[in-house]
Design a protein that fits this description.
Layout lengths: L1 H9 L1 E9 L7 E7 L4 E11 L3 E8 L3 E2 L5 E2 L7 E2 L7 E2 L4 E10 L4 E10 L1
Antiparallel strand pairs: 1-10, 2-9, 3-7, 3-8, 3-10, 4-5, 4-6, 4-9
C-alpha cells in the first residue's frame, strides 16, 4: 500500500486557468488555486489565442514569481515553456496566482499552466 501512495505522490499535476475575452485579454492577476498539501513547482507554461503577443508569469502568495523574467507568448496557438523556475515550494494554504503581465493586439484567450509534484 505504501508503494502505491508513494507513486501517486510523485506524479506531476497541473493547475492554472484560461482568461477569455471577446474584446481582448488585458494585464491582470488571478488567484487560480489554494494548495491543500505541500508541493513543488516543476514548470510554468503559457499559450495565447489571437492578438500579436503577451507576456505571462505565475507566482505564489502574490509576491514570489515562479519565472525570473515573464514568459513571452510570441507565437499564437502554441504552448511555450517558461524554462527555469524559482520560489518553487508551496505549503498548505499557499495560493497560486496567474499573471498576465502584458498583452498586445487583443488576444482572445491566454492560458497559464503550472506543473507541480507533491512534496
Amino acid at each position: 500500500v505504501q508503494a502505491a501512495i508513494d507513486e501517486i505522490a510523485e506524479r506531476p499535476f497541473s493547475r492554472g486557468a484560461t482568461l477569455v475575452s471577446s474584446t481582448g485579454v488585458s494585464a491582470q492577476f488571478v488567484v487560480a488555486w489554494r494548495a491543500p498539501f505541500a508541493c513543488t513547482v516543476q514548470a510554468v507554461r503559457g499559450q495565447r489565442v489571437g492578438g500579436s503577443g503577451a507576456t505571462v508569469n505565475a507566482r505564489r502568495d502574490s509576491g514570489f514569481d515562479h519565472l525570473a523574467a515573464p514568459l513571452s507568448l510570441s507565437s499564437a496557438d502554441v504552448w511555450l515553456d517558461g524554462g527555469a523556475v524559482q520560489n518553487t515550494a508551496y505549503a498548505v494554504g499557499d495560493t497560486l496566482e496567474i499573471v498576465v503581465v502584458s498583452a498586445s493586439g487583443l488576444p482572445t484567450q491566454i492560458s497559464i499552466q503550472v506543473e507541480f509534484v507533491r512534496s
